Hints:
Elements: H1 2-9, H2 16-83, H3 94-107, H4 111-131, H5 134-139, H6 145-232, H7 245-273
Amino acid sequence: xxFRLFKRKQDKRPSMRIRLVRALGSIxxxxxxxxxxxxxxxxxxxxxxxELIASNIKSINLSQRLSDITQEYDQQMLAVVVTNxxxxxxxxxxxxxxxxxxxxxxxxxxxxxxxxxxxxxxxFDAFMKTSMRFDEVFLADNVNTGExxxxxxxxxxxxxRNDIDILNEAIHKExxxxxxxxxxxxxxxxxxxxxxxxxxxxxxxxxLYFIMANYVNPIYRMSDGIxxxxxxxxxxxxxxxxxxxxxxxxxGLADLIEENTELKRRIKALREKE
Length: 274
């Protein structure tokens, strides 16, 4: 008996409480870490792709604006040809167009897109240089203004429109790719969360098995041993591996039952002597 008490005092193994706290703390740490990783990864991907998407949308708007400005100018010159009225000749705001073109080039991120913007600028320059001859052609007696417009100026405009349409198509395609990357990044960001949930569930099942095997089942066996002793007087002989508080309880029950059995034996012997 004294040896058992000495053994309990010298026991250095973690208590039941510490073991359970460690197990539950490990699960909480895994879930918390994976959650933080998922949030950080999602924010990183979201910020990066959102910036690209915003840039694509800005590029599309600027490209469309350049197309609208040039189309309006071309239609106004056509009105001069149709009405044969040079007073309708429009003034083109070249500085505004140049600012818009510079903004478009700055908003395009890919090298291929930058090359396409340069191509658009070159096509526009060709169109503008040709359109500057409009007054000269209109006032010339030996040149048919309509033939010059449709044969010389309009092809330059059509080249510009074709180049800007190609640029728009490339920007739209890049926008679709960036949107797909955003979706893929979202799924990549939730993978750590999914893995952590799986790991957490596995750890919960392992913890449940540990509790059942090391605590719940022994308690049931101790309870069955006590019931058997109370019903039949059979000695409490249950034992299990371990040296924590539950083992101490089991040893204490065994000692108490043994002492109670010895006490009953002495009482019976005294009664028989009487």
